Amino acid sequence: MFSSRLDWAAVPNKLARMLEGKRSAGVQILDLTESNPTAAGLSYGSDQIVESFADARWLRYEPAPAGIVAAREAVSQYYSNRVPMGRILLTASTSEAYGFLFKLLADPGDEILAPRPSYPLFDFLAALDSVRIVQYPLIYHGRWSIDFEAMAARVTPRTRAIVIVNPNNPTGSFLKKPELTQLAAFCKERDLAILSDEVFSDYGLEEDPERVRSLTEREDVLSFSFSGLSKVAGLPQLKLGWIVVNGPETLRAQAFERLELIADTYLSVGAPVQWAAAALLDLREGIQREIQQRVRRNLEFLRATIGASSPWRVLDVEGGWYAVLEGPRIHTEENWVLSLLEQDNVLVQPGFFFDFEREAFLILSLLTRPDVFEEGVRRILGRIPDPGIG
User: Among 16, 164, 236, 285, which has the highest number of CB atoms less than 10 A from its own CB?
Assistant: First the structure.
């Protein structure tokens, strides 16, 4: 009776079942997976956010497929007016942006290349549009980089686009200028588009002249840069994202016209958040500063706590909200996370949730409240769990 696109296993895994049992029993969990900024103890300008919705113009329905002019101008200003409003199309979220772009570029059964490791969402989004995700590897050699040889081997006649997440989630690695030059040539030669997910691009940890923050000024290959209030302003509950269309002028115009047709079919972006967009984006510096301080503090603690002789190591991280902790391979990742939760009441995510190709990696959110983060890290480093747990 139901579509095969929804044939997803809904059975809770061992970690979810154990977590539910502990929370039901009232056990206090040190949650090192917290990625919701509104639940992380940050100081928002609540009055200013509420006041931004006082504009009564949103009471009148004026459908605009690409988004109202005022909101698109606000996004243009976010890019320091380097991106013309005419290349900006609003969406309800970056997830919807992926859906629009899959519809724009791919027919059912076509393929999109996406990085591995990365956030475990692409397969689900692609399945809803009857598109197949093919993973290309990122390799680690003290820093993360694209394995172009492996990428080339994964391109088929049905490949339509390549996703980059910049910086990657959870590795925190940025695309570098030489990589972008190679990637652009790679895609141009094969008539592929680039989908550049830039939601964390404001959260670089250190300055790096080789870092690529955005593809918005790239003119030689068709590409799409997208982001939104969820990370830019730390407001995931206010559903507003955007797509910036980049590349040769003719292709840009054709792509934008088709995206408008898709957007006009859904008209999913609410008027209130569009009229509030300028004020909300103006508030981003304060919340971004607080998030950056939180992330840097937790990362510094993690690095300082793990000594040179420790069997644990922190992989290089350049930006974003996460740290990747590599542990001794004396246990599986599943046993690590189950043991930490069962014996120490510490919740972390295993690397296999993000499709790491080998063990043993734990993913820690640097957005976690510092007291929780520091105690959780101490417990992780404080003992080796029983390999029979779970």
Answer: 164
Whole-angstrom distance, CA of residue 83 vs CA of residue 76: 6
Q: Is the pTM of this model over 0.70?
A: yes
What is the tens place of the pLDDT at every residue in 27-56? 999 999 999 999 999 999 899 999 999 999
Q: What tokens were used for 245?
A: 């269309």
- Phi, psi of 126, rounded to the nearest 5 degrees: -65, -40
66: its two tokens: 């690409």
The amino acid that residue 115 corresponds to is: P
74 phi/psi in degrees, rounded to 5: -65, -40
CA nearest 202: which of 230, 240, 163? 230
Q: Which domains does the chain have, with CATH numbers?
A: 4-43+285-382 (3.90.1150.10), 53-282 (3.40.640.10)
β-partners of residue 325 are: 314, 362
Condensed to tens digits (0 to 9), the pLDDT of residues 99-146 reads 999 999 999 999 999 999 999 899 999 999 999 999 999 999 999 999
Over the range 232-256, which residues count as b (16 or more CB within 10 Å of their CB) and which as e? bbbbbebbbbbbbbbbeeeebeebb
